[in-house]
Write a structure and sequence with these properties.
With 338 residues, the chain is an alpha+beta fold. The protein is built from 9 helices and 12 strands. The protein has a single domain (15-336), classed as (Glycosyl)asparaginase (Glutamine Phosphoribosylpyrophosphate, subunit 1, domain 1). Helices cover 37% and strands 22% of the residues. The strands form 2 sheets. The chain has an 8-stranded mixed sheet. A 4-stranded antiparallel sheet has the order 7-8-9-10. Helix 2 packs antiparallel against helix 3, helix 3 (70-82) runs antiparallel to helix 4 (127-137) and helix 8 (266-277) crosses helix 9 (281-296). The longest helix is centred in the N-terminal third of the chain and has 23 residues, at 43-65. The N and C termini lie far apart (48 Å). Residues 1-23 and 189-200 have low confidence and may be disordered.
Length: 338
Amino acid sequence: MKFIRVLFLFSFLVQGAFGQAPGKYVMVIHGGAGTILKSSMTPEREKAYRDELTKALQAGYKLLKAGKPSLDAVEAAIRVMEDSPLFNAGKGAVFTNEGRNELDAAIMDGKSLAAGSVAGVTTIRNPISSARAVMEKSEHVMMVGAGAEKFAKEAGLEIVDPKYFWTEDRWKGLLKARRDDSVKNLQNKKGGLLGTGNHDYKFGTVGAVALDKNGNLAAGTSTGGMTNKKFGRVGDAPIIGAGTYANKLVGISCTGWGEFFIRNVVAHDVAALMEYKGLSVKDAANELIMKKVPNLGGDGGLIALDKDGNVAMPFNTAGMYRGTVTRDGKIEVLIYKD
């Protein structure tokens, strides 16, 4: 009996601050999926990506370790990536066909199912914070365009000149996309949803999912959308249930060809497969990313974290910027498929 009591005490202590077994994950992030090949990546650029992803994980983990809510950790991690020109979100947002940067973001609290999102904003430095303000300071879930910007300003968020988002790399990307799309239109007048050809360079999103000491999950996603997008296009990132979702079981953030994630309602479907069919987070995530999305012709990936600290990070592209941190602070950053 004495041995059993000692074993029970040891188990209780090992579970520690996060109420989980050792090695369980408390945060997972992504910085976009696509044709990301080691052969085309310089050592310096790879290090820059790894450093920024690590910085984002550290920002979120610091808050989780201090006992802060998962919402705080998600917002903090995403703000780091929004402030980096490396990712298609915030400072690094891509350009629309009109030469503007239009930003989308969403955040969701798994415990209460409260959610907030913004779409098509052009002057909010950190759209993820604006999405959270919509969730916490309004009776709405989504705000768009000028109305969302007015609300953000009244909520005390940082408003910037649209020139803040201009970067040379993204501008060159727009010029390339315009050329490529013109060629595609001439070669394939029948077209598909977005024509044919290599579209990977157009996409990119950042996201985070966190599990706090109280066992609550939160998820968030932020993006600059699609390079050369037209007509006020909005993708899956700010749409609750498509690119972002969290409940008491799991939190999900997606990245990829948004139209297909919307049509498959990917984030919610992962949660539904877990709740209604009893699938594990990995099996549910794989069902969407390795089967349903590609079967319709889409590509991308997602990150998911369940209530027990299990992680899934599937993608059907060549690579996905992604990282995890465990309850004891161990950080891992991955980029390529292998």
